[in-house]
Amino acid sequence: MNLYPMLKLVATDLDGTFLKNDKSISKENIDTLHSLGEKGILRVIATGRNLKKTMEVISPEIPFDYIVFSSGAGVYDTKHDKLLYHQNLNKEVVQQLADFLIENDLNFHLFKPVPENYNCWYHRGSILCSEFESYFQYLRSHTEPLPTNQLINSEACQFLVVFPNNLERFLSLKNNIENQFQEVKVVRTSSPLETGYIWMEIFHQSVSKGNGVKFVCDTLKIEHEYTLGIGNDFNDLDLLEFTNYSYIVENGPAEMKDRFLSAKSNEENAFARAIEKYL
Fold first, then answer.
1. Buried (b) or exposed (e) across 236-275, using 16+ Cβ within 10 A?
2. Torsion angle of C-alpha atoms 151, 154, 158, 159, degrees rounded to 10
3. Cα(275)–Cα(263) distance, rounded to whole angstroms?
4. Cα–Cα distance, 243 to 58 (Å, whole number)
5. Residue-by-residue pLDDT tens, the chain, 279 positions
6. CA-closest candidate to residue 51, choices 227, 233, 212
7. Are 158 and 89 in contact (CB under 8 A)?
8. 260 conformational bin, left if phi > 0, alpha if psi -120 to 50, beta if neither
């Protein structure tokens, strides 16, 4: 007899959680997805990747039911190939925030509205930032200079600000931005390039992985008590605070590990190992 609670929905982060370091997917994790489906348990991706970048690592044969992408700025139904929800920053806030970041001489990318948010604008500050330049090269075919002599005149999904690992500066900027712009929220995330830089993401205040998963639950009438989440970084906090059974992987930040259940590392099939006891 299975003594663990039944589940109706499982939500997982991708990079550093479900995916291995080389972005491959283990057979154990795929087998677990199939087992969840056989039991009628919904399988949800909750990722900071945009939808296009998510599809690059999750082929149609990988059986996920929903994708909460861009940290919750959009929700996509994989079975019906349909965008169910999106939330962008409005034009006025986009312009005011861009002006603020430029005045503070910061390097940043500004991603276009969902669902086109695989494209972006960029702005370089006066101080060279190698991390910004590395990410710029990665985005090169999808980015263009931020308009400087005219209004941006567009909604946008998010800002991404890159600067050296200075937590005090991050917290100061976060407080200033959230106090000045009531419509937004600031999220800290670790550099996926593993360089020690801080990446600061700025979204509409309602955007979070947790709210994206909550949207799926509310739409399908799934009670919170039957949900499980697993993640690896600070941008998974809202997800793990929403789900009832919440796991942080071994390779996650030390300061998150006393708040959530423990899982193996992403290299040791964290997803499969965390869920096997519920199946």
1. bbbbbebbebbbbbebbeeebeeebeebbbbeebbbbbbb
2. -10
3. 10
4. 23
5. 455 678 999 999 999 999 999 999 999 999 999 999 999 999 999 999 999 999 999 999 999 999 999 999 999 999 999 999 999 999 999 999 999 999 999 999 999 999 999 999 999 999 888 899 988 998 989 999 998 888 999 999 999 999 888 889 999 999 999 999 999 999 988 777 767 788 999 999 999 999 999 999 999 999 999 999 999 999 999 999 999 999 999 999 999 999 999 999 999 999 999 999 998
6. 212
7. yes
8. beta
The sign of the torsion formed by the CA atoms of 129, 135, 138, 141 equals: negative
Q: Could you give phi then psi for residue 40, rounded to 5 degrees?
A: 75, 20
Domains of the chain: 9-87+207-278 (3.40.50.1000), 91-204 (3.30.1240.10)
- Contact between 183 and 93 under an 8 Å Cβ cutoff? The reply is yes
How many CB atoms within 10 Å of residue 71? 28
Per the CB < 8 A criterion, the answer to whether 42 and 66 are in contact is yes
**Residue 141 to residue 163: CA distance in whole angstroms:** 22
* Cα radius of gyration rounded to whole Å, the chain: 19
111-142 burial, b for 16+ CB within 10 Å, e for fewer? bbbbbebbbbbbbbbeeebebbeebbeeeeeb
